[in-house]
Amino acid sequence: MSTEYLPGSCNIGPQEIRSRQMVALFGAVITVITALTLISTDQSKSARLSIFLPAAIFSIGFIQSRSKFCLAYGLAGTFNLGKLGQVSKVASLQDRKADRKTAVLILLKSLALAAVITAVFYALPL
């Protein structure tokens, strides 16, 4: 596991990655609870679209942890490879641009994954 800042590639260390994994787990649990609630309370099919938000929470945490890259840090021009809360500024303009590009890509991937999860749940014949 890298413990070095790599522009557009790695801007968080092990503690921050663990934090993103916990967000993904929380999002997954909320997604399952939402799905079970919608199914068990016999809601309209359109109500199934409400699973998008918890699925997005899961997706954002999951993709950030797998990428070793925080999208918020990438957009802000910061990184943290140490203890939680020890944020450092990215010095180079070129590095900040690479980080922003990666952050936007992670956001788009996360929203796409949440959309797929939502579409599959919506399409289920329940």
TrEMBL record:
Keywords, ordered alphabetically: Membrane, Transmembrane, Transmembrane helix
Domain of life: Bacteria
Membrane-traversing stretches: 22-40, 46-63, 103-124
Protein name, as recorded: Uncharacterized protein
Organism, as annotated: Candidatus Nanopelagicus hibericus
